[in-house]
Amino acid sequence: MGELVPLWRSSTVSNKLKARLIKTLVWPIATYGSEAWTLNKELRGNLEAFEMQCYQKAMRIPYTAHITNEEVLARVGQVRGLLGQTIKRKFRYFGYVTRYVTNMQCGDIVNWLGLSLGI
After folding, report:
1. To the nearest whole number, what is the mean pLDDT of the chain?
2. What is the pLDDT of residues 108-118, one digit of tens each?
3. Which of the pair, 26 or 110, is modelled with greater confidence?
4. For the chain, what is the radius of gyration of the CA atoms?
5. Residues 9, 41: Cα–Cα separation, whole Å
6. Whether 76 contacts 21, CB under 8 Å
7. Neighbours of 76 (CB within 10 A)
8. What's the whole-model pTM score?
């Protein structure tokens, strides 16, 4: 995000456009290879924190302002989406693996991917 600092500091760019730019330019780089990640509680928290830090930095909100995450999301006009996108990518990869790997049981694949089906 360092190269984009002039864009984030610009007052002529709306918050909604900044949020779209974050989703387009930053998230693909941050989630590269996320299909192979094990989504444990710590990593889920890190992804959610990273998403909020991106929005706060783009809107020039200092961490000392003590603004809630819901208020930041309301200002940007977005809902949380980075974790959901990562989970969707893992399930897409799971579909790919289940179609082409026939010698593994489905439960073994779920454990191998680190997914929780909530069954």
Report:
1. 84
2. 666 766 666 55
3. 26
4. 17
5. 33
6. no
7. 20
8. 0.76
* Amino acid occupying residue 66: H
Residue 105, both tokens: 């049981």
Q: Answer yes or no: are the C-beta atoms of 94 and 109 closer than 8 Å.
A: yes
Burial class (CB in 10 A: 0-12, 13-18, 19+), 115: middle
What whole-number distance in Å separates Cα of residue 23 and Cα of residue 72? 16
**CB 77 within 8 Å of CB 56:** no
Instruction: Compute CA distances 72 → 46, 49, 93, whole Å.
Output: 17, 12, 32
Structure tokens that stand for 27 in this block: 């998230």
Best CA proximity match to 39, nearest among 1, 93, 77:
93
pLDDT of the residue at 10: 87
- What does the DSSP assignment read for 67-98? --HHHHHHHHT----HHHHHHHHHHHHHHHHH
Instruction: Please write the tens of the pLDDT for every residue from 73-101.
Output: 999 999 998 999 999 898 888 887 777 66
